[in-house]
């Protein structure tokens, strides 16, 4: 699903060069739920930005769902992002001037779906996060947990193959955080690959596999991920031992 | 506290030079456009003789044809006939009165180095000076006796005396005009008239009169007016027929010192016209008017329609500029919500934040006002270049300078009220939590 | 593209939208009406006088004293003028077009008619006038020298024959058969016969409602000791001829004053100075107004971009391309501008109505408002382009940056 090989990211100012990622390699298989942990400044967010095609990288190779991303122009990257990736941010990033319906609608508009298709998807995904009844409300009228659910609905509406979550529970209290996490697990069970950046070890522990980033390098990973109980009748593609075993992070 | 806020305002403006420049330019342009047109309108239309403008009245009698009124809207002619003017002068019912007309004469200077030249002046009675109060430098007006005696005397304007006698006291000397010698009885000082309001028929913004001579003497010499002459039927041949005709070519002013005197004079005019009707004149219904100076100026549209339209448009433009400023201030203040939250958290009251931002708006207004003042100067320069006849009215005076700056500051503070109010609503906690 | 969500987002920040909308509305109202006034003034200024203005100039002569022989002087002067090198022709006339000073009278078809049929300007001239003015005779004939009557100033003009402009002829005789007809100048006989028709000659008064109603009256009538000469130079020689004329006339007789020489071009300039000034002032107001409005849009749009940086980043993260973001701001501007323009259209007509009632101006033609729409749409798009480009360059990674 996502394969980075010897990836480098250098930030340059006129005085100094900062190596945010140096020789960073990771391979996330389809259907996995991977937690990326590490102290602040380790390069977690840079990794996520590159994985989400928000930023370019300086060297190495990056295949997203088999597509070599380097050399794609901005438009192609936007398209790829729109079609394959869903985003969940720490601070939700809902657009305050739009109601829930219109917020979820945003990526679908860029996708170019017709009105009926969009409506169906918006309703489906809001139903999935349990907020179908509040479609006409504005973000400011919701609690943080609810806002993050809307953000998840927005991420899911386009049926992405890969969900990138950046500290999805960072701005939530523990009760709300648990709800959000359960929702993510549920989504993963239904087959969507999830990469979650977090510094919370408890949260990371619930992922199938942990990748630890320190100083821009993958230094530690869980070679034998715990197998998740697969819900009955929900043995979709790509879960289970196979993906767990095949994880390979180089270096 | 005020100076602290002033300092903060200045600093904040410097921090955002482009936004500040946009606001200052906007206000400056709006102020300049409205002040330029307002100055012209103000000076054109302002009362030229405020201490007695309600006592000076312009006499209008409707001697026009039974079939057509003089003006399409039924207003009476703006001048009177010779025979009516003389009848009113002889009756002498007003406190002061003068018939007058405009006259152009060739001047033949004594000094042979000066070539003869044409000059525009005024034929009037001595009360002209008593009514309109031009300042005298030397001598004074001629006397009532000299009016009655048809004497060939003259009062020279300042420039004419400058030209003919090098500015010396020329009283008692003579000036030769159209081959006739007139004795100089007085010389005017600088008579600053914004508009020549006593003869609006022949142009409010013409050059000032260069000489004045008795009406009676000019009529003896069969001098016709150089100004407007209107007839509704043929006058017949010759000078005497002309004087006897219903052609209007003379302006008639009276001074009436009280409302009672005005009422008396009105009824005198009515009875005069009714007498004339018995002689077969004045076929139209009674339609006498005695407008005072300001009414007469409004009637004759001294402030031209163009200037009124320009002023209207310029003020609409100012409104646009102010709306623009509201928007930009709003943008600026919203960006500072963090700072406001911090100040509130550090103990500033809502009121203090309010004053701080209003003063900042005032600083913008003051800068806009100064720019506007400079642009107004340029604008008036342009008006003088475009309208040569408005050179007397396109000048800034202290009142207008004060009004310009005050208008800029007041309007921008007003423009700042809403954004400031918005900025003050910021909850300190909301901004600091993140 | 996505008009409805942009619109509903806008409705959540009404004040900013109203501020820009009001500016756009007032700008439209002012620009439409000011452009209309400018157009009227330009039309006014472009009216032809009917004369050869390029080569023609005029000057006054005034003698002094009772002994001055005006008639002899004028005859001498005309003889002098006509034989000067470079002079095409010269005549004596009481007035010239656009000079704002002259004579007028009513013309009637019947004696004792209560209201005259037409008002006309009177040009009191000799048989060389048509050639000197440079007007075209389109029917009939010119005056003969023997038709120029000696008249004393102050006596009634009773010309046996007159030449009128086509406009006047059509007004008097709408059937087009004016030539040879007789009319009354004033209320009493005798009548005057129309012996010729010229295509066009304006009256001296620029604000006249019947400006092309003019009549040539053949008479030799000095105004006291004064007279006015109109001189047409050969093409291209006007300036040199002017100097020569002034010099020759000054030398020829010292008991009179030769006034300033005016070209017809100067006279046109002065006659239309007010219109010109109005057009220039309104143009300046329009330009300043458009500038302020454009700056206002730039300012507000920049502010919005700055305020929504994170939102833009989120949109980018959700798959919006640069051009999507660009289009978002352009669409937003288009919506605001359009709302403002709709209000502005009402304002523009209201302003025009006020002008009609207060100043008897004509109605604003309908097409000014759509033209104004197009211009302000273009202005808005141009103004928002910069900030929108800046918005489109917001990196998507802004979305993951912690606040």
UniProtKB/TrEMBL annotation, chain A:
User: SMART domains, per this entry?
Assistant: AAA
All copies of the ABC transporter domain together span 5-240
Extract the Pfam families matched here: ABC_tran
**Keyword set for this entry?**
ATP-binding, Nucleotide-binding, Transport
List the GO terms this entry assigns under cellular component, sorted alphabetically. plasma membrane; transmembrane transporter complex
**Per the record, which residues fall in region Disordered?**
231-251
Q: Which residue spans adopt a coiled-coil conformation according to this UniProt entry?
A: none
Please list the GO terms describing molecular function: ATP binding; ATP hydrolysis activity; transmembrane transporter activity
Q: Which PROSITE patterns match?
A: ABC_TRANSPORTER_1, ABC_TRANSPORTER_2
The Swiss-Prot or TrEMBL record describes its family as follows: Belongs to the ABC transporter superfamily. Macrolide exporter (TC 3.A.1.122) family.
* Protein name as catalogued: Putative ABC transport system ATP-binding protein
UniProtKB/TrEMBL annotation, chain B:
Membrane topology, as annotated, equals: Multi-pass membrane protein
Where do the ABC3 transporter permease C-terminal domain residues begin and end? 313-428
Report TM segments.
21-44, 313-333, 353-386, 398-418
A Gene Ontology term for the protein's cellular component: plasma membrane
Principal place of residence: membrane
Query: Domain MacB-like periplasmic core, which positions?
Result: 20-265
Compartments where located: Cell membrane
Q: Which UniProt keywords apply?
A: Cell membrane, Membrane, Transmembrane, Transmembrane helix
GO molecular-function annotation terms?
transmembrane transporter activity
Q: This protein is called what?
A: Putative ABC transport system permease protein
**What is the organism field in this record?**
Dokdonella immobilis
Automatic annotation (TrEMBL), chain C:
InterPro entries xrefs:
ABC3_permease_C, MacB_PCD, Macrolide_Exporter_MacB
The record's comment on protein family reads: Belongs to the ABC-4 integral membrane protein family.
What keywords are annotated for this sequence in UniProt?
A: Cell membrane, Membrane, Transmembrane, Transmembrane helix
Primary localization class, coarse: membrane
MacB-like periplasmic core domain boundaries: 34-246
Q: What is this protein called?
A: Putative ABC transport system permease protein
Q: Which organism is it from?
A: Dokdonella immobilis
Q: Where in the cell is it found?
A: Cell membrane
TM segment ranges: 15-38, 277-306, 334-354, 366-385
Stretches assigned to the ABC3 transporter permease C-terminal domain:
285-396
Membrane topology for this entry? Multi-pass membrane protein
Q: Name one Pfam family in it.
A: FtsX
The terms under GO molecular function for this entry are: transmembrane transporter activity
Q: Which GO terms describe its cellular component?
A: plasma membrane
